[in-house]
From TrEMBL:
Its cofactor is heme. Heme binds at C382. Keywords: Heme, Iron, Metal-binding, Monooxygenase, Oxidoreductase. GO terms for molecular function: heme binding; iron ion binding; monooxygenase activity; oxidoreductase activity, acting on paired donors, with incorporation or reduction of molecular oxygen. It holds the Pfam family p450. Belongs to the cytochrome P450 family. This is Cytochrome P450.
Length: 434
C-alpha cells in the first residue's frame, strides 16, 4: 500500500489549508468533485482530509470498512466539548452497549406511544401560525420541533420554559462551528454557558423521573437494562439526553422548513400530496395506521431529504490506513463523506425536485442503500430516524389536510448550510385554513 499515491487534490495554504473555502463556499466539495472525481484530498479544520462522494464511497466508510474509522476523533473539538461523551462520539463496544440500551425508546410500542403528543402539538402550532399575518417558518418550526423533543425525550411538563430552553439550544448550536474563544460574550462562550444550563435542567428532570417513573424517552432510559443487568449511569444519561434534544429537533426543523418551501414552489406536487391526504381524511381522523398509507407523501419527504439534507457531511478519523480506488490514505487523517453531493450522485436530473423518482416504477434509489445518506447508513444509521420520520409525516399530513400557504414575494431563498440548512430569509409565508 505504501507504494500507492495519495488521492488527487490539494492541501492549500500552510496551517489553515482550505478551511476558509470549506466554511464559506457552499460549492466547495462540488467544485473539487468536478476536478478530481468522487475521492480526493484536502486540508481542513487543521488536518489532512480525504473526501468520499457517492454510494460506493459511503458504503466503504459507513459499513464495509468501518473498522478503519473512528467517530470520536473525527469531529472538531467544539462538537466534542459541547455535546460531551454521547453516542454521537462513541466507538466500539461502548457505542454498541449504549445503542442497545437506548434502542427500545425509539422503536415499537414506545414509538407508538408518542403519536398523540406529536399530533396534538402539531395541531396547536399550526392553528397558532394561521392567526399570524406573516410567518417566518424556520424559527417557528424550531420552537415546534423543540417542544416535541422536550416533551417526548425529556418529559418537560406543560408550561415548561420552552422559549428559554430553545434559546439555549440555539446558543449551543451556534457554537459548533464558531472559533473556540471562551469569552462569555462570544458565540463559543455563550455555547458553553448554554450547555451547562441545559445539563442542569436535564439533571433536574432525571431526579423528577426517578421519583415518578414515566414513559417518555428519559423515563424509559432510566428503567432500561441489558441482559446482564447493566444500566446507563446518570452522567451517561445526561449527555445522551443532551444529544437527543440536539439531534431531535435541529434536523427535523430543517427538513420541514424545506418541505414547506418545496411544496409552495411546486403546485402540482402540492396538489397530488393534498389529494392523497383528502382521500385518507375522508375515512377518518389521522391515525397511526393511516401513516402507513401515504406513499406519495413518503416520496415527497424522500425527495426533500435528497435535495436539502440538513447537514452537508459527516466526519470520521482514520485509525487504520486503507486503500480505496488505487490510492492510499494514512492513519491520522480525517475522512469526510459528503451527504449533499452523494444524494445527487445516483439520480437522473439530480437538481430537479421530482418526487416520482422514488415511485415503484422508477425507484432511482434502489441500486444502492447508500444513494440517500442524510441520516447516515449502515450499522450506525441515525438511532432516531423512525422518531423523526413519524413526526414529519404527522406534521405534513395535518398541514396538507387543513391549510394552504403562500410564499412571500421578494425574499432570499438561497440556502445557508451552517449550522443546519435553511433559507436565508427563514422562509416567510402566510398560512390560512382551507
Amino acid at each position: 500500500m505504501t507504494s500507492l499515491p495519495l488521492p488527487p487534490g490539494q492541501l492549500g495554504l500552510p496551517l489553515i489549508g482550505e478551511t476558509p473555502s470549506f466554511l464559506l463556499d457552499p460549492r466547495f466539495a462540488a467544485k473539487r468533485q468536478r476536478r478530481y472525481g468522487n475521492f480526493f484530498k484536502t486540508h481542513i479544520l487543521g488536518s489532512p482530509t480525504v473526501v468520499f462522494i457517492g454510494p460506493e464511497g459511503c458504503e466503504f466508510l459507513l459499513s464495509s470498512h468501518m473498522q478503519h474509522f473512528a467517530w470520536k476523533g473525527g469531529w472538531p473539538q467544539n462538537f466534542q466539548e459541547l455535546l460531551g461523551e454521547s453516542l454521537f462520539l462513541q466507538d466500539g463496544e461502548t457505542h454498541r452497549r449504549n445503542r442497545r440500551l437506548m434502542m427500545p425508546a425509539f422503536h415499537g410500542k414506545a414509538l407508538e406511544g408518542y403519536f398523540s403528543t406529536m399530533m396534538n402539538l402539531a395541531e396547536q402550532y399550526q392553528q397558532d401560525w394561521a392567526q399570524q399575518d406573516e410567518l417566518t417558518v424556520f424559527p417557528a418550526m424550531k420552537q415546534f420541533t423543540f417542544e416535541v423533543a422536550s416533551v417526548l425525550l425529556v418529559g418537560s411538563p406543560p408550561g415548561a420554559p420552552i422559549d428559554q430552553l430553545s434559546q439555549w439550544f440555539t446558543d449551543l448550536t451556534n457554537g459548533l462551528f464558531a472559533p473556540p474563544l471562551r469569552w462569555r460574550w462570544l458565540p463559543y462562550g455563550r455555547a458553553l454557558r448554554a450547555r451547562d444550563r441545559l445539563l442542569t435542567y436535564i439533571e433536574e428532570m432525571i431526579q423528577t423521573r426517578q421519583a415518578n417513573p414515566t414513559q417518555d424517552v428519559l423515563g424509559l432510559l432510566l428503567q432500561t437494562e441489558d441482559e446482564a443487568g447493566n444500566r446507563l449511569s446518570q452522567e451517561e444519561i445526561k449527555v445522551q439526553t443532551l444529544l437527543m434534544l440536539f439531534a431531535g429537533h435541529e434536523t427535523t426543523t430543517s427538513l420541514l422548513t424545506s418541505l414547506m418551501m418545496m411544496l409552495g414552489q411546486h403546485p402540482a406536487v402540492l396538489q397530488q400530496a393534498r389529494e392523497e391526504q383528502d382521500a385518507l381524511a375522508a375515512t377518518g381522523t389521522l391515525t397511526l395506521d393511516q401513516l402507513k398509507q401515504m406513499p406519495y407523501l413518503d416520496q415527497v419527504l424522500k425527495e426533500t431529504e435528497r435535495l436539502y439534507p440538513p447537514v452537508g457531511g459527516g466526519f470520521r478519523q482514520v485509525i487504520k490506513p486503507f486503500e480505496f480506488k488505487g490510492y492510499r490514505v494514512p492513519a491520522g487523517w480525517l475522512a469526510l463523506y459528503r451527504i449533499n453531493e452523494t444524494n445527487r450522485a445516483a439520480y437522473a436530473a439530480p437538481d430537479r425536485f421530482d418526487p416520482d423518482r422514488f415511485s415503484p416504477g422508477r425507484a432511482e434509489h434502489r441500486p444502492s442503500d447508500y444513494s440517500l445518506v442524510s441520516f447516515g447508513g449502515g450499522p450506525r444509521v441515525c438511532l432516531g430516524l423512525a422518531f423523526a420520520k413519524m413526526e414529519m409525516k404527522i406534521f405534513a399530513a395535518l398541514l396538507l389536510r387543513r391549510y394552504t400557504w403562500r410564499l412571500a414575494a421578494n425574499q432570499d431563498l438561497s440556502m445557508k448550510p451552517i449550522p443546519t440548512l435553511r433559507p436565508a430569509s427563514g422562509l416567510k409565508l402566510s398560512l390560512a385554513r382551507r
